[in-house]
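User: Run a structure prediction on this.
Assistant: Running it now.
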Amino acid sequence: MSHNPEPETRIERTADGSLTVLDVVTGSTYHSRHGARTESIHVFIRAGLDFLREKGLQHFQVLEMGFGTGLNAFLTAERTLDGDISVDYTALEAFPLAMGMWEEVVNQELHCTELFRTIHASPWGERAVIAERFSIVKHHIRLQDFFSQEKFDLIYYDAFEPNTQPELWTEEVFRKLFDMSAPGGVVVTYCAKGSVRRAMQAAGYTVERLPGPPFKREMLRAVRR
């Protein structure tokens, strides 16, 4: 997820039974050890997707920074099965999991469905229709090198924490995201660090602190007014 050397990784099971991946060198995990699925639903689905759905949005352009294990994309695709929303999903990942690793994640994930497997099996760099109301394109690219004319309604910001990847939590980065956000567009992230909140505000977002997932006091939601 940065210009750093490709991480050495291994799979770990989290407190709610779902999986995460550990970067052995930095000690950072792709999701919370207190529950990967629980965290993703709380931060990205409920505070992001459901928040906008309750405001009446029916078709979403979603950008994810940090595809990782594919969990956020999978949970988003699941939401479209209810039939009331559709999503065109764009995911960025500088270091995609090797095939053997993602196959292991899919095979061990307790909540896995064929939908999860299909998302991982879809080709990189090409938009694929995964379900009737969900399509995805996965880009093997750093955020710093990604440019799009698309305006995104919702951005899942799931980079490694600022102590691990400080270059991804700067005002410059959030200005870039602001320019790619649609009017009323939302950025959600698990991170609630004061410097991150101030960088988002300096970029032009209106930022609010929300209750965080288990064992985390707060998270952030930023809106382009």
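The first helix runs from residue 36 to 54.
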